[in-house]
Write a structure and sequence with these properties.
With 88 residues, the protein is mostly beta strands. The chain is 7% helix and 38% strand.
């Protein structure tokens, strides 16, 4: 994930399986674009501990979080599941 649109700016890579608050620790409410290179769906949440509003990205997905997503500068935590799942 990046702080800037179109995968520019400060970069953060999350590899921790399960819930992680590293976003809040490094770039809280600054994430503007993401790429999901993880083998399963990845989730971003607006609050710590995988709480609050969320978005999911299918494996291989990439996007700017503004516009129709409406999640620009909102992410504070993430969840990488240890099994296959889909966005609902």
């Amino acid at each position: 994930m990046w702080t800037g649109k179109d995968f520019k700016g400060q970069r953060l890579v999350i590899t921790h399986i399960g819930v992680s608050n590293v976003i809040a620790d490094v770039m809280n409410n600054e994430v503007s674009s993401v790429k999901n290179h993880y083998k399963f769906t990845a989730w971003l949440y607006e609050k710590r501990n995988a709480e609050g509003g969320n978005i999911c990205l299918q494996s291989g997905g990439q996007t700017n979080l503004g516009g129709s997503f409406g999640f620009n500068n909102e992410a504070s935590s993430s969840r990488l599941p240890d099994h296959a799942n889909t966005c609902i």
